[in-house]
Amino acid sequence: MGSVRKASAWLGLVDDNDDERYYDDDYAEGQDSGDAWVTDPRVKVASDAAQETGRRIGTVTPDSFRDARGIGELFRDGVPVIMNLTAMEPADAKRVVDFAAGLTFGLRGTIERVATRVFLLTPANTEIVSGEADRQSGGFFNQS
Predict the structure, then answer these.
(1) Which neighbouring-strand residues pair with 83?
(2) Residues 79-115: pLDDT tens digits?
(3) How do strand 81-84 and strand 118-122 relate by DSSP bridges?
(4) DSSP state, residue 21
(5) Helix (H, G, I), strand (E, B) or coil at 58
(6) Is residue 112 helix, strand or coil?
(7) Higher per-residue pLDDT: 33 or 48
(8) Which 8-state DSSP code applies to residue 130?
(9) Cα separation of 81 and 29, whole Å?
(10) Distance between CA 116 and CA 85 in Å, rounded?
(11) What is the largest CA-CA distance in the chain?
(12) Cβ contact 103:121 at 8 Å
């Protein structure tokens, strides 16, 4: 590539067709990736790894009671769900909370209010760890 072409490509005036120079495919062939970080932007690492290890949390912001089915399907699959009901009408929000309470009771999970009109639904095999013990022992700022 000539110097004028390189300068034009650097300025973005022409397409740089020499993209292959940035990838070194021979390097990755001989190594065992294991738990190493993958830097190729075409690979979806976080979502695949989270799904395989069961470390997923669903967040749902329903608009109406019809969206409760999505909450139920996620929770039934064993995924903890954060319900944000701030965008709903109060009557519909109450119906969704009643549905979620029945859902958690039926599947032996728990429901906990996180904030105003925001709830956390956790399956039976999930433990919630809160920071309450740190506050009772004086916390980080009480260093005297």
Answers:
(1) 60, 119
(2) 899 999 999 999 999 999 999 999 999 999 999 999 9
(3) antiparallel
(4) G
(5) strand
(6) strand
(7) 48
(8) -
(9) 39
(10) 9
(11) 70
(12) yes
Residue 46 exposed, middle or buried by CB count within 10 Å (0-12, 13-18, 19+): exposed
User: Strand 81-84 to strand 110-115: parallel, antiparallel, or no bridges (unpaired)?
Assistant: unpaired
* Assigned token pair, 144: 């005297």
* End-to-end Cα spacing for the chain: 67
Which amino acid, one-letter code, is at 8?
A: S
Task: Please tell me the distance from the alpha carbon of residue 85 to that of residue 119, in angstroms, as a whole number.
Answer: 8
79 and 57 Cβ atoms separated by less than 8 Å: yes
Q: Please report where in the chains the tokens 């929770």 appear, as a residue.
A: 75
Q: Which residue has the tokens 């919630």?
A: 128
Token pair, residue 98, equals: 């009643």
Classify 42 as helix, strand or coil: coil
Q: What would the pLDDT profile of 41-57 be if each residue is shown by its tens digit?
A: 444 444 556 556 667 88
Amino acid at 118: V
**Burial call 1-32: b when 16+ CB within 10 Å, e when fewer:** eeeeeeeeeeeeeeeeeeeeeeeeeeeeeeee
Is the full-model pTM beyond 0.85? no
